[in-house]
Design goal:
- By secondary structure, the protein is α/β, with parallel strands linked by helices.
- It has a single domain, classed as Rossmann fold.
- Helix content is 35%, strand content 19%.
- Helix 5 crosses helix 6.
- The longest helix is centred in the last third of the chain and has 20 residues.
- The protein starts with 14 loop residues before the first helix and ends with a strand.
Length: 217
């Protein structure tokens, strides 16, 4: 589940990233910060670290909550490509971002969360209170310029790109897939067949980012 703002960070957030996030908060308005990067780049780690250091003024709402359910991926014949651009509810995600940008007085907004333990999205798992001023949303395709993903960028006040050397990303991804039940050979095959091709697509959006963060997470 999302990182608790009251918990101490398990990692060091780059100082320039923390400064940039505080500048967004200083506007006094609710703003949406996108954090994008290839699988294994450390998007979730950076997002959770920012939330931990900024406290209750911020919250993380991941794009991954809009994964299509496994049963729907199987119906569409896309289960073997889970994580590709066409395996998400893009318009649902964009609609939530639009709603988050224009909160009503005292309105609580609920967002979905992707549970890696069961490989399924869970509706209503993240509660966004009205006083939160910085929405941190992280995911793979925030800067993807092909339809329908191109509808997402206008809802982001800023978007950062996180990059890590490919060999390190590959190592992290294999370890992640093994942690959640895949054997070593299967994990490596999934990374090479799915995660790395998706990474090539995501890297094309790097030049459109407002800030590029190179770090080891």
């Amino acid at each position: 589940m999302p990182h608790s703002p009251s918990s101490p960070p398990r990692y060091r957030v780059p100082e320039h990233a923390l400064t940039a996030a505080r500048q967004l908060l200083a506007t006094g308005e609710r703003v949406v910060l996108g954090i994008v990067g290839p699988p294994g780049a450390g998007k979730s780690t950076l997002s959770e670290g920012l939330q931990a250091m900024l406290g209750v003024a911020s919250i993380v709402v991941p794009m991954d909550g809009f994964h299509l359910a496994q049963i729907e991926l199987e119906r569409l014949g896309r289960a073997a490509r889970k994580g590709a651009p066409d395996t998400f509810d893009v318009f649902g995600y964009a609609a939530l971002l639009a709603r988050l940008r224009m909160p009503r007085t005292a309105e609580w907004i609920y967002a979905p969360f992707f549970d890696r333990a069961i490989e399924e999205p869970i509706a209503g798992a993240i509660r966004v209170p009205p006083e939160v001023r910085l929405i941190i949303t992280e995911g793979n395709y925030l800067l993807h310029d092909q339809e329908p993903w191109s509808c997402v960028r206008p809802f982001l006040d800023a978007c950062w790109y996180v990059e890590v050397p490919e060999a390190e990303r590959h190592r992290r991804l294999v370890a992640r897939h093994m942690k959640f039940g895949r054997g070593a050979e299967d994990a490596r095959a999934w990374v090479d067949r799915n995660d790395m091709p998706n990474a090539r697509l995501i890297e094309q959006g790097r030049e459109r980012a407002d800030l590029v963060i190179a770090w080891e997470g």
